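R.M. (postdoc): so does anyone remember the format we settled on? I'll just put the structure tokens first.
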């Protein structure tokens, strides 16, 4: 059976600080993130189906990823919840703070993104892999085959 992978790229700006880290990333700083989302499935073969030949409409993938990730994290500051950094940001009244139950590293973020995307994909479409660029030369990758 024919399987096809589709990839859609998403971009957002996000700051973070790594609480307790022993390097420069303990300081609040921002990145221009690029998230590539690759799904896999069999193209629709029903002759009268409006999406004949598609695994998934790219617009449908946008409607999943944009509210879950882009709109939520764009121009926000992500920090580990209930840390001194989190409390200070709340005390100064910063509006777009994303407290997370983990350290907001590229590795943790990509795993989190995978989990929330998987829950929303339509039947017959699976998440194949994600790539999250934190900088122009640094990125993390998540593959479903590695995370069964």
């Amino acid at each position: 059976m024919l399987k096809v992978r589709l990839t859609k790229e998403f971009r957002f700006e996000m700051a973070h600080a790594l609480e307790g880290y022993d390097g420069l990333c303990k300081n609040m700083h921002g990145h221009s993130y690029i998230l590539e989302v690759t799904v896999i499935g069999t193209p629709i073969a029903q002759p009268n189906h409006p999406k004949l030949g598609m695994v998934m409409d790219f617009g449908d993938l946008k409607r999943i990823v944009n509210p879950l990730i882009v709109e939520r994290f764009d121009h926000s500051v992500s920090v580990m919840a209930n840390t001194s950094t989190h409390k200070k940001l709340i005390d100064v009244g910063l509006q777009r703070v994303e407290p997370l139950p983990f350290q907001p590293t590229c590795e943790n973020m990509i795993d989190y993104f995978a989990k929330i995307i998987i829950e929303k994909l339509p039947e017959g479409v699976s998440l194949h892999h994600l790539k999250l660029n934190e900088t122009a030369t640094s990125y993390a990758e998540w593959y479903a085959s590695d995370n069964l």
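R.M.: ...and that's the designed sequence above, right after the tokens. Also worth knowing: Residues 114 and 130 are 7 Å apart (CA to CA). The chain has a mean pLDDT of 97.
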